[in-house]
Design a protein that fits this description.
The protein is an all-alpha fold. The chain has 6 helices and no strands.
Amino acid sequence: MFYAPLLLTVIANLLYHFASKSVNEKSNLFFSLFVVYGIAWVICLFSFLFRSDKTPLSQEVHYLNGGTVLLGIAIVFVEVGYLWLYRVGWPMSMAAILVTSLLTLLLIPIGIFIFKEPFSLKEAAGVLFCLLGVYLLR
């Protein structure tokens, strides 16, 4: 069960990038996202209504915090960013790996200093190899 979320995330990201690259370039980015989030809203609503735990809605609302709001804002800009990257001609393989590599570089100090996550020399070497790989893909 430990690897199930990893597998789900990889498969969902494959679908995400394929779908993002396939969105009609003539469509307005924000109208496309409006439809996308409408579909997502319906899926989330049904998933919430038919969940196994029966935590009351009032309790669920109590659990919300600034992170939820920030995530909503961030998701819109992630979507716009990828759609825009693909519309200006970035290939999927390069856009995804470059974004992920840059993101990783920015997340390392956040993980270390804010969330107190460990970071070893072995992991630093791994990051350097990934960056070398990105450089070689240019």
